[in-house]
Amino acid sequence: MTSRLAFDLERRHAGGPTIRAALTEELAPGQVLVLFGPSGSGKTTVMRCLAGIDRPDAGFIRFGGESWFDGAARIHVPPQRRRVGLLFQDHALFPHLSVEANVGYGLHGLPAPEQRERVGETASLLGIQDLLTRRPGQLSGGQRQRVALARAIAPRPRLLLLDEPLSALDAPTREELRGELRALLHRIGVPSVVVTHDRVEALGLGDRLAVLAEGAVRQIGLVHEVFSAPSDLVVARVVGTENVVRARIFGSEAGLVRVEIGAARMLAVDPGHIEGEVFACIRAEEVLLERAPHAVTSARNQLPGTVTALSLEGPLVRVTLDVGFRLVALVTRPGAEQVGLAVGGPVVALVKAPAIRLVPRG
Question: Are the CB atoms for 359 and 281 separated by under 8 Å?
């Protein structure tokens, strides 16, 4: 059963920007909606308004048939009545309390036996039963994240809000925990909204993506589709990576992995500890175009295909190709003329193995 999240809000910051954002999404249990955009785009403002921490200056917020805010009707439901779970980027655990006390912090309204039962159930769900007597200072980054998530879901919220959930961790830990967090969010079965400015985090965590830029929601869709086909130049600049396609790893050799993308097979650098379904990310400027295959080239992937579209962007030409999957390249105008690019004409795309970034999916 889905729950509809709908908002059309305006939040004015004194001496700063005005955020205007509108969105309507059906969120299924366990589904993750990512609010993605650069710093200052309004992501955290929207999240704080959804949580009830901040009050919009105008508009409305509705979830699951309930009105949480309506400026015209003067409705503002306080945070504690919205049944929203919050996970902050620093995890915000109480250092003087045990893990058990942290997880049970939001359960004070329940009888003591029911509190203990709820803490036990939540700890079992997230695999932290052996940590209940420890304090946060005795935990690893991943363990603290699990405890913070347990505290957020123990009161059985209807919606989870996560603000940059991996940003406080070092890079190796982020890589390790990204897939784990996604699996946990799906297992919990509560719809989630994740705020992030990190492309890999958005790809690794999200099912749906809403791009915020210049104080507004600019595009909404499936994560890989938004990254692969931005709706306008503003979104294209925000998402950065023009080619994000579903792929499958089906073998490895000498530090490389064999990847199947649509009807094409390619070699990429082995990222380690990843197998099966992935996203393959290729920046458009990393795609070289030639008239015919080269007998000798440092590019391990030569993809014959057809030009399906050409678009002028200042001194550059955006070239859309069909090489067994949709691939976008950015070349200079002289380069396009030298290769003789024309819609419907043949072309060979050259992509070096290190230019393919693989991101785990599920």
Answer: yes
Position 333, amino acid: R
Domains of the chain: 3-243 (3.40.50.300), 244-360 (2.40.50.100)
The whole-model pTM stands at 0.76
Residues 318, 265 contacting (CB under 8 angstroms): no
Distance, CA of 6 to CA of 3 (rounded, Å): 10
The Cα–Cα gap between 281 and 299 comes to 16
For residue range 241-280, list pLDDT tens digits in order.
Answer: 888 888 999 988 888 999 999 889 999 998 877 788 888 8
Q: DSSP class of residue 13? A: P
What are the strands of the beta sheet with 216-222, ordered from one edge?
Answer: 84-87, 159-163, 192-196, 32-36, 208-213, 216-222
- For Cα atoms 53, 173, 101, give the angle at the middle one, nearest 5 degrees: 50
CA pseudo-torsion sign 288, 294, 299, 302: positive
